[in-house]
Design brief:
This protein is of the alpha/beta class. It is built from eight helices and nine strands.
């Protein structure tokens, strides 16, 4: 049976989380820090009131934690990778937050040059460049891949007017089981809805969320219009092409509607 009182919630370690948590209610999303994330990822975070940065799981090479696929400004079919060269001090067991940027000074210079080359001709570049500069500076001042990746996502969210709040999983207490961990993190925000990518719907035991009064809502983006290719390329590309106001309108319209269940995605009871 679902928990019915405060005392029954001691089974979840979320009760021992830090006190400076958001007020209850709303939507939460839990996602690893991504370097200039894809449009679909950014849309899910934008639709949430809270983003819990999953920063204490194992770093994965050849993933979006340290690289982004950029589409050319005037030819979206022409694409290139932009990467943060990353060193893992503890080998494959290194967590995301402990991954280190290789040669930060050179990396900052290369990334700044690439972004300027790709999007400097955008009519919105003068708006975007000041938002990106602090991200580039973090490459040197932090030297951490996760810090830069998180900052790059936050910069895009703020450019679109996202009013939400960011928390980090490393600052919250949770159980080790994959689904139980997500339940505890969602409960820590007081959220009533957990926005889940369609991949997560294949393994999540939604009954564990139900027991805590949290509804698991699958999130997907459309496959046409501005969203075409949204699962492949960085949102920065479309932001440079359409500008913050136009793209923000698309994001707000999507967030206001029901996210829906992607074809082929099923929930585990």
């Amino acid at each position: 049976m679902p928990p019915t009182g405060h005392s029954s919630r001691t089974a979840s370690t979320a009760a021992s989380s830090p006190p400076d948590l958001p007020p209850p209610g709303g939507r939460c999303a839990i996602h690893q820090p991504n370097f200039f994330p894809r449009l679909s990822t950014l849309a899910k975070l934008f639709a949430a009131d809270y983003w819990i940065v999953l920063d204490d799981v194992q770093f994965a090479r050849r993933d979006y934690q340290h690289r982004a696929r950029l589409a050319a400004l005037n030819d979206p079919a022409r694409r290139q990778w932009l990467s943060l060269p990353t060193h893992l001090p503890n080998g494959r067991s290194t967590t995301i937050r402990d991954a280190e940027i290789v040669d930060p000074v050179r990396t900052r210079r290369r990334i700044q040059h690439t972004l300027q080359h790709c999007y400097g001709a955008s009519p919105y570049w003068l708006l975007l460049r000041p938002a990106l500069t602090p991200v580039l500076d973090l490459i040197i001042t932090s030297g951490r891949t996760a810090a830069v990746a998180e900052a790059s996502t936050q910069a895009l969210l703020e450019a679109l007017g996202w009013p939400g709040r960011i928390l980090r999983s490393s600052a919250l207490t949770s159980r080790p089981d994959r689904t139980e961990r997500l339940v505890d993190l969602a409960v820590a925000t007081g959220a009533t809805t957990y926005l889940c990518g369609t991949g997560g719907m294949r393994y999540l035991r939604t009954s564990l969320f139900d027991a805590w009064g949290v509804t698991v809502t699958p999130f997907r983006t459309p496959g046409a219009g501005v969203w075409a290719g949204g699962r492949e390329v960085s949102a920065l590309s479309l932001l440079a092409r359409l500008g913050p106001l136009s793209l923000s309108a698309e994001f707000r319209a999507l967030a206001a509607g029901p996210p829906g269940l992607a074809k082929g995605a099923t929930a585990v009871p």
